[in-house]
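seq as requested:
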Amino acid sequence: MFLSTLIYSLCTTYMPEDVNIYIIDFGSESLRVHEKFPQVGDIVFASERDKLLKLMGLIGDEIQSRKKLFADYNGEYKNYIKNSGKRIPLKVIIINNYDSFKESYSVLEETLIKYTREGERYGIIFIISATNSHSIYSKVERNFHNTFVLDMPDKSAYVDILGKIGNVYPAEFDGRGLFRKDEVYEFQTAQIC
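struct tokens:
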């Protein structure tokens, strides 16, 4: 629900010139509903090995291209957009069900660590979903600044993921969760229909 709402929100808020979305859906393939949006460059499913490898290669090529393009702008996407007078879309790479991705394509783990570490600087943002608190290796996890936690079967999992949360737990409603900014907050995600 969270990823679908996020994709829908990006596509209804930004033009394709501003944001391009690439989806790696190793879940129930429910994100397929977004494939007709012009902002969605492609969707890759678990059985599409060649397509996945091609996408990972394209991401690497894009990082290298942007390194050169942004060299005169302190090597950063934000500086380039602010000072060049040119537009280049933010690239959003979504990996749905990281557990399955990691199990099926462990050979790409080091590549993903590199891309998630370097990508943000060059306007390539990764969003990863996982089904449990220990799915994402710390080498990958440390490259992310924001963590949103939806319904967990055990309350201790919230602490495992977010650290000290005090006595804040999400109410038991679909789409309810927690995230940390300066403090821990409860949120409600919308469900598109």
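The mean pLDDT is 93.
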